[in-house]
Amino acid sequence: MKSILVLLASLTLFACSQTPNLQPEDKPNYETYIAEGDSFKQLNFTSIAGDKINLNELPKRKLIVYFATWCHDSQRAMRQIMASPLAADNNLQIVGVGREENAANLEKFQQEYQLNFPLVSDIDRSYYNQVANAGIPRLILLDNNNNVVKTIIGEIPNTIDYLVW
Q: In the record, which residues are listed under signal peptide (predicted)?
């Protein structure tokens, strides 16, 4: 029984690093394709509400959160963001990008977690694949000019503590 509990705890810890259909032996190494100081390339999104999001038009800092609704680490990170001053910061634009998520799932998630920022569907990982190959939630901090300040894989208990710039 003790061995089963240890195994379940280990599997839960690493669950968000892969998609639900990958087998453990198929799990890729974590790779991040952008680094501090790089220009963030994906500047245009369309939210699930149909609103256009152009990061160049927002003269403020940005937090881009790549996540999945089924991922416990993503759920925890979203709760932490909403409980923090970040959610009410008028000098910060937060955009959530649902990796392999459709609009209906994201809308339900947005309501359940009372998210006050736009969500974007990335059903085919076209946005996510520009920044990494594995690991969610993945938080990317951008400055006013859309340069990367920091990237964080939020598979840690207090992700919000690392969102300082």
A: 1-17
